[in-house]
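Thread: "does anyone have the structure for this chain?"

Original post by V.I.:
We have the sequence but no experimental structure in hand. Need at least a predicted one for the grant figures.
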Amino acid sequence: MRIIDLPSTELTYAIGDIHGRLDLLERAFGLIEAHAGTRDFQVVCLGDYVDRGPDSRGVIDFLIHQQRRIRLTCLKGNHEDMMLDAIEAGEWSFWLDNGGEETWSSYLGEVPDQHLAWLRALPVSARDADRFYVHAGFMPGLDLTDQDEEACLWIRGRFLIAEAEELPGHVVHGHTPRHNDKLAMEEPERLPHRTNLDTGACWTGVLGVGVFEPGRAGPVSVLRVR
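Reply from O.Q.:
Generated one for you, tokens below.
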């Protein structure tokens, strides 16, 4: 599995699952740029740009535009995977039953080639000197070279109960807005070995943005965009 190596910057902002909430994403970028001020920064989006929310097409248009003006790495989520499987392999029912109907409506039934190419090119994981970024998580106990893309996009249970020594380092992820130890969907989960930034934006109206600095694995703060 290929992992993108990120540059070193004074600040790194990681954005959780967006799910078609262009309104929250636009506010998040405004808040990030105001928060960073004159400091050097980059943004990592953790996947799930599409489905469930009202404007998946607008979200992808916005991200493509932002990649032309700032350091922005967009990772692949399981919902982008489902979308591509539907369009390219005919797996329509699974996608449409899991939020794809809203996405298909936002495109009026036709996805531009530019968007399909962008979706195909999304990397699965990234890293810097202090932490790893991935949509869902890693299979505990496996070397990075042995990690499976499907697990990185879909894993929950085994990863969520993993101990620190089972993981390659601090993991910044999304994918799971609620589980047994994260009952408040709108709240991020901050643990010594991982940070979960999925705040269920499409349901709660809250988008989580982790703020990271060099030399410290976990976030120094989490911005909540409403």
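V.I.: this helps a lot. The two ends are 35 Å apart (CA to CA).
O.Q.: and Helices lie at 22-36, 56-67, 78-89, 92-106, 113-120, 149-154, 157-160, 201-204.
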